[in-house]
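Please, structure for the following, as tokens.
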Amino acid sequence: MNPQTARIRHPEPPHVGAAPATFAVQLSSTRRGARLARLLATQWLDEHAVPYRSASSRTAAVIVAELAANAVRHCGSIGRDFRVSLTLTEAAPARVLRVEVTDARADKPLPPGAPWPPEDGCESGRGLLLVDALSHRWGERVNDPVTKTLWAELDLPE
């Protein structure tokens, strides 16, 4: 596979309609940065007609939290930041929320067949399983020799 080609678990749908609403922030690769990513995402969604305590907001919060925690786990030790981007697109029959988390570890792509259950007794390793279960589509994109992006999409109710 060409390294510039996204590894897609599910095909991406075409996005048509009004210009998407977008949000992006760069955060430190710390646990605090990961928490802040989740909080900022839910606040932004609330401002864009996805109410704070709604099922869609809670699902998006888990996805952002897991992807951000993954970036922190794999980039925090080398002191590199990560970037969270949200895009809310009006696409019939549903609105689509795309969550992207970009980190500076293109040298650590997802292993083939990921995600898989962690070994018994492991305290971590379930994040991508949650993303896979909660999102409608998700995948990985190697952007350049330095960065990669994990993305997930949710089809939101009208």
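The CA atoms of residues 46 and 54 lie 9 Å apart. DSSP finds three helices and six strands in the chain.
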